[in-house]
């Protein structure tokens, strides 16, 4: 256990920029945009007349409606975090078993009494648990800072931030939902994580190309052959990967239609799963046949990555 | 006493090339063994097999364990410095010490800090900010602070200047080595380590061509320096190697009668470097004739 913690700390130290600084920058962008909009309002809105009006109109709405807007707004604000986190994890895993082979420090890491299995596990846990946890914590802090700024703004026009939005919101539920959707996505994404680690253990250079080119070439060939045989475009790798992303348990879609928000798990294009944001719908995905197939694929990729890691010092 | 390393028929093939060819080894505790060989002789491959960094054929046991299978457990008692440039460049010194402390059951932070106090390395330094010599000092401080049974050094001083090289071996000998520990070193700078070795192993084309203690080496090999007119006579006593230096002929004999040789000229104990050249060239000549 101590060894696992030591290895997790090592991953954090090496990737501090990606794991900690990136979400802080996104949170910072949110706050800066909020402040910019406040200053713009203050500049053009004489004596904040319009803002006062907006607060008044909002106060006349039902508390259920205001609570719903807050809840949907908080869920929606996580989408940008989710997308950037996807990139962070993608590049983290792509380098996870490649960087130390490239700079030869693998000889140092292998001189420590930590098995290859433990090392590989520490990298997978970093991708699945550590990175989402950092993103959740910083998202929560961002929400709190934004709430404080918003409250100050409302207080300045003699409004009551508590009755207006703080009291009716259910931030805990929103945070639990976001965190749960990210951890659920970590499990859902295991086949891709396994593939990235396999490429990272295997690629002689430019792992990015090795990760993207083979599936791309394969997909083109498959689509072409399929088309020649059936004159239809179905069930090829593009479809499989596309469907897999669309069905993800992460909160990926935030739209506003006629004044009401529509926040969804994945992208609401398929009928197989319910896309409404709820824990039950996340669990429904994790206990599906698709997930089982995904876990089998992930197991093969990860076993191959471990095998390659074991032999990484052969030549 | 149980040997630290024992190998029988240790073999490593890369496709058709045989890097290590049926090696037998037996290294007891408390020795400093020099593994010497030309480039591509299989030194590093043999060391990697011992460290569990590659798969092999034949039998190999290090501290009673199979390194290919039990690397992680073995590394609690074995330390190695592969060469100067393998410490991760992004890491800070304090992080490296923290990590080693948490992973190694027999690491002493105090000892490590004590060794580092004599250097210019500080805890806040990143490895990439350190000079090559300082990285070597840091790595040696880490390794010496681990109470290990076997220390493997593969070209540990490559690319260091002479001051760092001397200091490296002095520290190793004064502060680290004792009867319980075994050190296995490969290097091209044979002159620098010959006075600290207790055992000598020559390896050529994946095979061991010499394996003996330094005492045996000194008893067995003798160098004879003669003036040119005695050269024919000396050549008749089947030397293993002959070279010329400032008009004098120097012959190297394996197990010759020293009294018989003393009549012809001056006798010396050959340096390891000369013995190495003689063994390698001699073997090549024999190979060529066959």
Please tell me about this protein's structure.
The complex is a heterodimer of chains A (about 325) and B (about 290). Chain A has one domain. Chain A is built from 14 helices and two strands. Helices cover about 75% and strands about 5% of the residues of chain A. In chain A, strands 1-2 form a two-stranded antiparallel sheet. By secondary structure, chain B is α/β, with parallel strands linked by helices. In chain B, the strands form three sheets. Chain B has a six-stranded mixed beta sheet with strand order 5-6-7-3-8-9, sandwiched between helices. Chain B has a four-stranded antiparallel beta sheet with strand order 11-12-10-13. A three-stranded antiparallel beta sheet of chain B has the order 2-1-4, covered by helices on one side. The longest helix of chain B is centred in the last third of the chain and has 18 residues, at about 270-290. Chain B is globular and about 65 Å long. Chains A and B meet through helix 1 and helix 6 of A and helix 2, strand 5 and helix 3 of B.
Question: Which key phrases capture this entry?
Answer:
heterodimer; A: mainly alpha; two-stranded antiparallel ribbon; 14 helices; globular; B: 290 residues; alpha/beta; Rossmann fold; 2 domains; disordered C terminus
What structural class do you assign from the helix and strand content of chain B?
alpha/beta
What string gives the helices and strands of chain B in order? EEEHEHEHHHEHEHEEHEHEEHEH
Broad shape of chain A: globular
Q: Which bin fits the share of residues in helices of chain B?
A: 25-40%
Strand content of chain B: 25-35%
* Assembly category: heterodimer
Q: Give the mean pLDDT of chain A.
A: 89
